[in-house]
């Protein structure tokens, strides 16, 4: 090591028997450096946590280890031999397997095909029957008998798909298993199942790299950990040698950066959106009311109907309700065109695919909802609306070379600001936000919080789904938690704490039922208990986060 | 394990980052790019085919000096503008991330319908009726694609087949020989512009190009078409009427193909059931060479004219060198490959 | 929602049968459409089931079916082949011209090699060049078509009666040889697609290329091989066509571009890749290929075949979409 980077400065040299040594990993995408010199090692039989906020570079590091991404520079040594980079196959052959965050399962293949096809040569015979038998055996060995090996993966629930992905990574008895946010869709019993498998593997001498930002899970499973921030190593820790506060400030940088604005005082109590018994795909009767100038948070674990709720309210997916009003006017069926006309705005989940036309300019992306066929468009329209566009770009501090720059060349945070900005100062009554702060840097987050609060001050009702519990707890007037497509709890005032949000998110309204146990392989009779999900690890994660928060 | 329990972030920062921007996102400026390539990147795509045409024109001059003449230029440009008119509709379809493979038989259908209807409706009435027929064909394409969700390729192939049947069943070819005067007047008649004699179709095609480019670049409808082509889901979630934009896009595409049919009848003064067949691949070729992205969201009618000029100049050179139509096709293929390997990759 | 909630259903026997696969691959509608069509055909023209007519019909349908299978393989990996007609023309004339001087096996090998080379050319540019299949094959359509006319500029070649009999005659009474060849090729293709890992990879690449790559498989090579395989299948279709017409023709492949895409669409294949069935494609090709015949025997102007084919495609592919929409409206969102 000649040129010492900040992270590496504090890294102790790897022991000679380390299973994995990653040195000075760098990955740049064009001008953006996702990972800027990360060095760490992993010993045999240990669970190494890789923690950091969204966008800190954890996933990129995991993908480099798995061979899915070629490092720009740096070296990876597994068991004394350098890992052939950029080939998942080579990584697998050297005993490194990864369960990916974006599931690497082929939706049109059956479970059995997904489990067996990745191994072996392409010109080898393939028997469905043998594959099914083998898959069945494997799933039973891993206590997952409820998954049908003949079902197409695309038809499984998100949680089941994640279990299959993990089972596939485990199947080869890897020397090094990488779990990249592998618990993101799992329920608490699912997480316990995962930890049991991890302990089995480490007992046999295998190592696990556990990528996560759930501190509760890390406290339970990790022997050691490396903290990443902005693509660099921010520090390291060992089991029981850390507190949530320390880890959080290490992940976030300075304490001051975790500042949340307070929700503004409400000027009127008019209702701008009310819906009773809203039903749609994945929504089983949701009722809620949103007032003018109110920031209403939506909480819950991934896949419990939050995305569906926003899409249904905006008319992006068909939905019906007993009664449904926007700005006092009744709504029957709706679609995005009508919703925009009624004064709704929507910031969708995937900014690159659903939010922006990446080839078009910054200004035209802001104007996209406001194009009428018979009006001017393009540059003449941009100069007509220059005042509004410049106002938005300044208010959100969008870092761009101007309204004519291609939006695809902006960074993620600035792109997100465009998707949000197009609804600002346009007479909106309700704005629906789908996790707008995910994967953007701290500064962009602050600027978005400010803009959200500013909109609320103007009397706009804001419905805000976030995966970050702290945001909801601090910036919202009120939080509604969804569980299995229904409202599990509504939290306001002193009840609005991170613990309560997380408790409700795992379906444990009114106190946590810690008594529920049972392995995932529980017989059918036990289904009644398993559905009453207890919260242990998952609940512990964000709640412990809060204890270190600003409150 | 002998690792220190906690190495604080502050200590790490104190070690000093030599190149520490506030956040990684700020790093996205054009620092890495040379000024030359950034200038090149700013040149509108439509310019490249026009430059390529000029280069080919110069090459022609090197081979046969007498090729560099106004007459030769007008000859090539006339051939190219007819191909371009036939490809304008295709351009509109490709911009919205579709494709219109029913162009050939829309051309044939409108041409034959026009000639058939000149008797009962008069030239003006027949002209309008043929254009309306083209718009109707486009409407059906667009409605099936937008509302039923069939892929554009399959829908327009089916439409092409259906139109072929209709052409064979509905028209009596032996009677369709007389081309009305006013169509000749706007196509093959020689007119004088700025002291140059040229077929009327050339200024007509250029005027159409200007109008279409203005519509595509400077109207809400035109820009919406680009948003839909660039990212359909984005357009939908921004509240744009995506289905309506798609359908009107295909209607314009059909209308332009129908117009091309009438122009072709006027210029060549003959019509047959298969008169459009050669435009199936040639129209897509002109659009692609003109710099449009086959994935949608990118393209211009000026570029399409440039693409048609390149293809036209190639055919002039091939004719001069006496290489035969076969080699011309081969060169077309190589040009398309060159163009797409230059900028045909899917955006990252 | 629970990760571990036991599945209510017991062992699903129907899952083991091929029916589910056919349904998933969209083959049910084209199979039904063919059944209806076939019954109508036999009612209107019972003499289809005579030896001569069966043979004629088979010779008409088999080249289309083979080319449609080639198009299917490319559609399975998420591509489309605009050059398929040109490849067919080229393989057709190579076969016919080589027969003039070379022994039959050499001519066959050269023709298959031509198809393979054309397919690999496209495949290399698409898989390793990262270029869009539609644009690459548009360009190569010009190139291959021009090459075909360089090889032979007018119909001709040395196809002999023996070759006609070997490919398009009768094996046994009521068993046209061409159908036997089609069956052999279809079974081999089925074995390749369903019973080898490569075949499943082809389906996987079309279903989700990124997932296949993340699983450590060579997605690019799979794509390349799919294009090569399609080239070989196209050359089979070209040779069947040259044999049954006893001539090589540099434009013989042109009509097969649109009809092969139409057949694959009618077969219910998904054009983004990953789904499509062999039997559905063959039956769709039979339906489309025989419509003209049927109209002829029904005493209708056979130009109607173009209109009817188009309507059948839109109906068979579009009706399920309409059905789903209507069902959703009727059912409401009660579940």
From TrEMBL, chain A:
Per its record, what are the GO molecular function terms? ATP binding
List the CDD domains.
ABC_Carb_Monos_I, ABC_Carb_Monos_II
Q: Which SMART domains match?
A: AAA (SM00382)
- Region spans: Disordered: 519-551
Residue span, ABC transporter domain: 20-255, 265-509
Q: Which UniProt keywords apply?
A: ATP-binding, Nucleotide-binding, Repeat, Transport
SUPFAM superfamilies referenced in this protein's UniProt entry, alphabetically: P-loop containing nucleoside triphosphate hydrolases
- Put simply, this protein is called Sugar ABC transporter ATP-binding protein
* Species, as recorded: Herbiconiux moechotypicola
TrEMBL record, chain B:
What the entry lists under Pfam families is as follows: BPD_transp_2
Q: Please give the InterPro entries that the UniProt record associates with this protein.
A: ABC_transp_permease (IPR001851)
Q: Residue spans with biased composition (Low complexity)?
A: 8-25
Where would you find this protein in the cell? Cell membrane
Region ranges (Disordered): 1-31
Please report the record's description of how this protein sits within the membrane. Answer: Multi-pass membrane protein
- Which keywords fit this entry according to its UniProt record? Cell inner membrane, Cell membrane, Membrane, Transmembrane, Transmembrane helix, Transport
Membrane spanning stretches: 46-63, 75-99, 111-137, 191-216, 250-270, 276-295, 327-344
Q: How does it assemble?
A: The complex is composed of two ATP-binding proteins (LsrA), two transmembrane proteins (LsrC and LsrD) and a solute-binding protein (LsrB).
Report the function annotation for this chain: Part of the ABC transporter complex LsrABCD involved in autoinducer 2 (AI-2) import. Probably responsible for the translocation of the substrate across the membrane.
Protein's UniProt name: Autoinducer 2 import system permease protein LsrC
From TrEMBL, chain C:
Concerning InterPro entries, the annotation shows: ABC_transp_permease (IPR001851)
* Top-rank taxon: Bacteria
Q: Report the subcellular localization.
A: Cell membrane
Pfam families referenced in this protein's UniProt entry, alphabetically: BPD_transp_2 (PF02653)
**Keyword terms:** Cell inner membrane, Cell membrane, Membrane, Transmembrane, Transmembrane helix, Transport
- Membrane-crossing residues? 27-48, 60-84, 104-126, 133-152, 172-193, 224-243, 255-271, 278-297, 303-323
* Mode of membrane association: Multi-pass membrane protein
Q: What is this protein called?
A: Autoinducer 2 import system permease protein LsrD
Q: Which organism is it from?
A: Herbiconiux moechotypicola
